[in-house]
Q: What sequence folds into this?
């Protein structure tokens, strides 16, 4: 039959193309793991989290509705915690319940090529427009997840799996983006002062955690700093006069990414300013009321002007806390460190 059809026989195997063994089709599951291995080492901790979140949503949307399918909640936990992270599920021990889910996903994953079908791609994009509770996600959430999908399928193109990125073949209506800010939910100066004062009572007077957090929240309100910028403020980078306006030369951020995503295993990552060159410094004016609050924080903590930063206080605030005050703690505990 091959000879009648005019097929050319391979000189090494002796078989025509129609009789040669074809490699099994690459599944979405296998491709997604390969994509994670490529992107993970060079991605920032928060972007790792975004990749994990998006791949989890895409995988759940692609899984067939057939008997034995794990619940969405079980898949969400297994994929987020054990599949789309490094080391991968084949390189470490994972809980039996998660292993059952991961193995089911591996067996039932459709071919990657199915994403070239408009109906399949539309189903994925529509799924990314929903939150876990089934309600509509925000425009920014959809944009973030779609960006990961586009980037992943661009990588698939590099591997020769697609001629064009299949995301571009489907047009979906993006969730509406609400830009205006409701002034009724924005704290006025008096309310902000009361809120910042209330923060000082966190964990009780003797622990002093709350007094340290006053400096962080005051920087966010009075200087308009991002939370990660305020956490990264070092006193040696500030000009804090006894009276009048001061200045902070911002040059780093310490976003809370989580121990699972950072290379160091710490809660915070240490990075440059957002959307700027890593070495760029941004001078930020400090109004007199903020200068006074920060100077008071330094005096209260008995720190020198060469002190470190607010970072440890925020890391400590994010960590589990005892139900009744701080109590006795070892000398290395955050409550006993010299903080602002």
A:
């Amino acid at each position: 039959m091959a000879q009648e059809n005019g097929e050319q026989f391979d000189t090494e195997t002796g078989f025509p193309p129609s009789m040669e063994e074809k490699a099994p089709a690459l599944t979405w599951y296998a491709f997604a793991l390969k994509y994670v291995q490529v992107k993970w080492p060079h991605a920032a901790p928060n972007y790792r989290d975004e990749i994990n979140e998006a791949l989890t949503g895409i995988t759940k949307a692609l899984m067939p509705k057939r008997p034995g399918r794990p619940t969405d909640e079980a898949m969400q936990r297994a994929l987020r915690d054990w599949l789309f992270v490094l080391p991968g599920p084949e390189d470490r021990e994972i809980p039996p319940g998660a292993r059952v889910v991961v193995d089911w996903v591996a067996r039932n994953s459709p071919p990657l090529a199915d994403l070239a079908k408009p109906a399949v791609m539309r189903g994925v994009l529509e799924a990314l427009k929903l939150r876990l509770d089934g309600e509509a996600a925000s425009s920014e959430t959809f944009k973030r997840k779609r960006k990961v999908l586009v980037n992943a399928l661009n990588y698939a193109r590099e591997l020769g799996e697609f001629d064009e990125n299949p995301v571009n073949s489907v047009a979906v209506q993006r969730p509406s983006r609400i830009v205006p800010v409701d002034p009724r939910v924005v704290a006025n100066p008096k309310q902000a002062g009361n809120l910042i004062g209330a923060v000082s009572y966190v964990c009780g007077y003797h622990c002093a955690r709350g007094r340290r957090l006053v400096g962080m929240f005051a920087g966010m309100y009075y200087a308009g700093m991002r939370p990660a910028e305020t956490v990264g403020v070092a006193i040696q980078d500030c000009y804090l006069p006894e009276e009048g306006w001061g200045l902070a030369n911002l040059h780093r951020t310490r976003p809370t990414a989580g121990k699972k995503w950072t290379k160091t295993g710490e809660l915070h990552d240490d990075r440059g300013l957002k959307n700027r060159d890593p070495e760029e410094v941004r001078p930020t004016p400090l109004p007199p009321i903020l200068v006074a609050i920060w100077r008071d924080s330094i005096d209260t903590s008995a720190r020198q002007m060469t002190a470190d930063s607010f970072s440890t206080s925020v890391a400590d605030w994010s960590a589990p806390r005892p139900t009744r005050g701080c109590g006795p703690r070892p000398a290395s505990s955050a409550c006993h460190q010299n903080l602002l």
Q: What stands out?
A: The CA atoms of residues 174 and 288 lie 44 Å apart. The chain has eleven helices and three strands.
